[in-house]
Amino acid sequence: MQKEEIIKIIDNFLIEEFEIEASKVKPDAHLQDDLELESLDFVDIAVIVEEEFGFKLKGEEMGNVRTLNDLYDFIYNYLQKNK
Q1: Are 79 and 7 in contact (CB under 8 A)?
Q2: Which has fewest Cβ within 10 Å: 1, 40, 49, 50?
Q3: How far is CA 55 from its chain centroid?
Q4: pTM to 2 decimals?
């Protein structure tokens, strides 16, 4: 899967499910500070990642994910390693 596809899926999910303004959804957006996502929202993100990309996110793996770009990179790198 191309990184652009991952970005599109994640961005659409955030805009549709969390009703985040599209203008706020940009790679350098901080998940908590800019997008105002809370810990329960990360459960929903984990579910969509499992449904769309076929793997489960674990909390300890997400420790360095702070921005949207971190999330895109994490998913992309995981998929590349586990082809």
Answers
A1: no
A2: 40
A3: 13
A4: 0.92
Owner of token pair 């895109």: 72
CB count, 10 Å around CB of 19? 7
- Which CATH fold topology does 3-81 show? 1.10.1200
> Mutual orientation of helices 68-81 and 3-17 as an angle, nearest 10°?
130
Domain ranges of the chain: 3-81
* Arithmetic mean of pLDDT, 11-15: 97
| Residue in the block written with tokens 């674990």 | 58
Helix, strand, coil percent content, the chain, rounded in steps of 5: 65, 0, 35
Question: 20-56 b/e with 16+ CB inside 10 Å = b?
Answer: beeeebeeebebeeebebeeebbeebbebbeeebeee
